[in-house]
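Forum: Protein Structure Q&A
Topic: Joint prediction for protein chains with partners

I've read a bunch of threads here and the consensus seems to be that you should model interacting components together rather than docking separate models afterwards. I'd like to see that in practice. Below is the full input, 431 residues plus whatever partners are listed. Could one of the regulars post the assembled result?
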Amino acid sequence: MNYYSLHKKAPHTTFEDAVVRGLAPDKGLYFPEEITALPKSFFDTIENKSNTEIAFEAIKQFVGDDIPEHDLKQIVEDTLCFDFPVVTLNDSISTLELFHGPTMAFKDVGARFMARCLGYFNKNNSRKVTVLVATSGDTGGAVANGFLGVKGVDVVILYPSGKVSDIQEKQLTTLGQNITALEVDGVFDDCQDMVKRAFVDEELTSHMQLTSANSINIARWLPQLFYFMFTYKQLKSTYNDITFSVPSGNFGNICAGMVAQKLGLPISHFIASNNANNVVTNYLNTEEYSPKTSVQTISNAMDVGNPSNFIRIQELYNSDFETLKSNLSSYSFSDAETREALLEIYSTYNYIADPHGAVGYLGAKAHLQDRPDEHVVFLETAHPTKFLDVVEDVIETKVALPEQIQSVIDKEKISIKISDYESFKELLLQR
Ligand SMILES: *Cc1c(COP(=O)(O)O)cnc(C)c1O
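Posted by a regular:
Agreed with the consensus. Here's the joint model:
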């Protein structure tokens, strides 16, 4: 399988090269040349397959010959070492819990898969790849944990000082080994800008192979399509018409769901559920795509003003607005509505959601007003204790900390403070 750049000004390349580079030389996102549907029998018998079997069959064509089947199976198995339960709230709404991984963020799957692919590619050479990640909270922890100890890979995480939760900070600053945490005197956008500048800084890129572990990287993005298949496996005998409500920020997750649909997974419809950062909601209403500066909300992993994967969605639909609109709806919700939803989910179903899941729940409810016969699954993308302040305040109940979180709380934080691009660059050059 080869990949091309969506800017169309770079050579087509292999899976391996696309993963190592992250972004194409023309700064475009990579996209698979072909997406071949799986046979109908695959979906007819999906309930008899293990998650590893499903994921292996689904991802195989995207990896091609770059990783032998035996090794790819092992990578998939190591990636998926936890559960993906669907919890049904009522006849119309279920939630898929994506927070059972080591950092309790749904990004664990993509990070673990990408790390293992890079580890495989580096097995027989002395290449060194430096992964740069800017994080507003959850990505950093998932990437740090997924890449810990992987041969030939150095991870440098930039996070805004004082602007991630205590738990998130512990998850990214306590691992050591090949993981370095940089505490930036600034906001998330400053971290992101430094990373973007590094990728185009020739003095740096001629010294070292830099890559990204954000969802622009195909090995972080594509494995997310597994979630939609695991849901279908669990619900197909009960519901015919399954729609997904995906709490969206950079639109990587929902776009991977659309790839699953291209592979033949019967999905009725997609809902992009947004917080106040509503570029895509506006686009579907007006056909005009106007990126904006992000605004801060209580579902902060979705505070994105210019979603990087939206261009991949356009490509999947050949930029045909009407076809896209018939398969995708989008709604935007305020923080006040999100808090009300958290309380409603708790008082009606005795279920504790996190603010991102609550936005997904609101999208599901809005959609069901028009299409009451569908069954909508909203994705729970983070464990509620990662947003403890908001959740405990709204439901007025203490929430117990799960073991994965408990285990990092008492560890010692180690970070390096930086304040500008020059100090960041110097630090990279010294490595
Ligand atoms: C990253 C993230 C999202 C948004 O996912 P995208 O693929 O960027 O749309 C939603 N919820 C949580 C908790 C996240 O960490």
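Residues 105, 107, 138, 215, 247-253, 301-302, 356, 381-382 surround pyridoxal-5'-phosphate (CB under 6 Å).
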